[in-house]
Amino acid sequence: MAKKPKSNDKALAQNKKARHDYSILSTMEAGMVLTGTEIKSIRDRRVTLRDGYVQIRHGEAILMNVQINEYLQGNQFNHDPFRNRKLLLHKKEILKLQEETKNKGITIVPLKMYLKNGFAKVLIGVAKGKHEYDKRESLKKRDQQREIDRALKNR
After folding, report:
1. Rounded CA gap, 42 and 34, in Å?
2. 19-28, 48-57, 68-77: which range is least confident on average?
3. pLDDT digits (tens, 9 = 90+) for 16-33
4. What is the per-residue DSSP string for the chain?
5. What pTM, to 2 d.p., does this model score?
6. How far is it, in rounded angstroms, from Cα 106 to Cα 127?
7. Cβ atoms of 42 and 68 closer than 8 Å
8. Region Disordered: which residues?
9. Beta bridge partners of 11
10. Among the listed residues 44, 45, 122, 38, the one whose alpha carbon sits nearest the alpha carbon of residue 82
């Protein structure tokens, strides 16, 4: 039996609530400017993306309200868990995000944080908020699909 090819992407944190509360229009990968203790905490999976969002300020994309807990062995050189972090994107990508968020009800949310070739990356998504009935409808569709999959599996 052949070995599976080893994937370089290792998901460290996911924002499942974002996929429930928003319909994702497009996604984009971005790097982050981090300190030493932040990357160590990320590798320990001590990250919360739930309330995070991205703002475009002065031509820079900034990841806000994402909690990266303090590194346990970090002593006096530890970081602030809620500090704003600059995202590393090309100028064209930032301008594209800025144009897309000009529409009412459109926001940018972090969906997933992972390591890629040793570097921490965040998958951000341009999203539009769902109404309550949209959320119920998507739950209903997911349950129906699950039932269909179970029925086909048990055949």
Report:
1. 10
2. 68-77
3. 888 888 889 999 999 999
4. -PPPPPPS-EEEEE-HHHHHHEEEEEEEEEEE---HHHHHHHHTT-EE-TT-EEEEETTEEEEES-EEPPPTT-GGGPPPTT--EEEE--HHHHHHHHHHTTSTTEEEEEEEEEEETTEEEEEEEEEEEPPHHHHHHHHHHHHHHHHHHHHHHT-
5. 0.79
6. 6
7. yes
8. 134-155
9. 114
10. 38
Contact yes or no for 121/112 (Cβ under 8 A):
no
Look at residues 24, 8, 29, 15 and name the one whose alpha carbon lies nearest to residue 123.
29
Predicted local distance difference test score (pLDDT) of residue 21? 86
Q: Which two tokens stand for residue 113?
A: 């944080």
Distance CA 153, CA 77 (A): 53
| Cα end-to-end distance, the chain, whole Å | 27
CA 154 to chain centre: 35
Residue 33 tokens read as: 């400017």
Domains of the chain: 10-130 (2.40.280.10)
Place of tokens 């994309």: 61
